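pipeline stage [seq->struct] | target=60S ribosomal protein L28 | organism=Rhizophlyctis rosea | residues=135
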Amino acid sequence: MSSDLVWLLTRNNNSFLVKRNGIQLSREPGNLLNLNSRKFSGLAAKKTVDVAAAPKGVTVTLRKTKAGNKPVATANATTYTKGTRASAKSVRNLLAHYRPDLEKAALARVARLNESAKPAKVQKPKKVRGVRARV
C-alpha cells in the first residue's frame, strides 16, 4: 500500500493520536517530534527514524524499505554509547543519505536523551554557624 494512502486513512483516526487543546499530537514509534503530520509520521512513511533511550546511550532505529511481509526484519537498530558529540556525529552521518530532512529533529532528540541520562549533581548542605542559626 502506498504511503500516501496510509496517511489519508490514518491521519484523523489511529490509536496513537492525541487531540488536546486544539492541537493534534501522535505517540507513534518513529515520530521524532510527536506531531501528527505526514512528514513525521512513523506509520505512513516508508523510511522512518526512531531515537529512543537505551540503558547506556541512545538507540537509533531505521526502517528498511524492502523487507517484504516480515515485520521483525524491518527494523535496523544501532546503539550509540559515546558522549553527545560523538553520538550526534554518528547520527548525522547515518541520516545524511537516509532521511536528511529529519536530521535536525533527530539530533535534538539525541542531545535531550543524552542530557537527561546524566546523573543529577548533589549539592552539599551549607555549614551553619552560631547558636541561632542551628534552630
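stage status: PASS
auto-comment: The chain has two domains: 1-45, 46-117. Residues 115 and 125 are 25 Å apart (CA to CA).
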